[in-house]
Amino acid sequence: MIYSSTAPNHQKRSCPVCDQEILPRKHILQCSSCKQIFHRTCVGRFTPAAYQQIGCNWKCIACIEANTTKKCSTCDASIHNNLCLSCLTESIPTPEYFTSSSPPLASDKEVNAENYDLNLEKGISFNHLNANSIRNKFDEISMLLRLNTFTAFVCTESKLELARNSVETFKIDTYTSVRHDRIREGGGTIFYFKNNVTFSKIEFSFSLPDDCEIHAYIIKIKHIRPIILVSVYNSSSVRKTDFLNALERTLASLRDFDYEKIILGDFNFNLLDKDSFTHSLFSFYKQFNLWQLIDSPTRVTEKSATLIDHIYVTNKPYFISFINTPFASSDHNLICCTRKKLRAKTGYGFINTRSFKKPR
Fold first, then answer.
1. Sheet with 334-339, edge to edge strand ranges
2. How far apart are CA 39 and CA 18, in angstroms?
3. How many domains does the structure of the chain reveal?
4. Does the pLDDT at position 51 exceed 70?
5. 25 or 30: whose pLDDT is higher?
6. Beta strand 334-339 with 124-130: parallel, antiparallel or unpaired?
7. In 172-271, where do the E strands start and end?
8. pTM of this prediction?
9. In angstroms, rounded to a whole number, what is the distance separating the alpha carbons of residues 163 and 73?
10. Which of 41, 94, 192, 264 could form a disulfide with 153 if both were Cys (CB 3.0 to 4.6 A apart)?
11. Which domain CATH number covers 196?
């Protein structure tokens, strides 16, 4: 149907997903249960034929979940956010390395190196792990980086302090480390850049909420256009509206750089929840032409499964693979994405020649 607002006493209405005003002559869908109206493009991708057949029986996601109790076809347990937590925890591979209470040392001969080899596609790889303290996981991270060629590895919630944690202790061969140590309880970020990568820090002129960390670097790789890498750590204690405002200011300031952008980290926004904050986040990234790559839970416990670690990119067709897998004793999964290594276009060259023929 097409939205009409020709009545003189008409009140403006906004879409619950993008929170934008619904203008006249726009295609909409109205929920037959709660009577709210949505932009057609905000609730799904419909072909013209499918859109015409929907009619008046369409219901929004909130009404469907409120009126339907789903059961798992395998174990008959209740399904939350289209996920059965009982089956999910059983289906995740948990090799002995991941479940070991005492993580193996990098020098231990009994460690199976295959557990650290991710078999990455050829290209440039960007990775993130919320380590929840790198001090007791550094040996595993060190072996992971030595066996895989990562362009950049970001570790959030490192929980390092300059006063008592030596800078030399957490260095890895063939990588350059950059530490942003925590100031308060929790937090802290450490970057590992491959030695053949040059990088420079982008400084922001605005302040961030407490317990929120955002760092941005310009990465330069030979024969490739510069890429902006942004790391995000958002504590659960930060108000979601304050975090979204800080993220918006960050991306607005990065518009001055005509470079490809990769944003990854622990956002503490569960994308499996269909609430107003998640819709705001989706519309927010849609505004900045960003695409989210991870589509499965990144933090799984006995009682919950949440997708709170994200990777956003501007050039989605360039990314050929991504990985979401448990790692060591961290309560968050390791997430990775691999981008094609496309050469930057070079300018035209001119060749000057001289003729030695004698004029006739």
1. 175-180, 189-194, 152-156, 124-130, 334-339, 319-325
2. 8
3. 2
4. no
5. 30
6. antiparallel
7. 175-180, 189-194, 198-202, 212-221, 224-234, 260-266
8. 0.66
9. 54
10. 192
11. 3.60.10.10
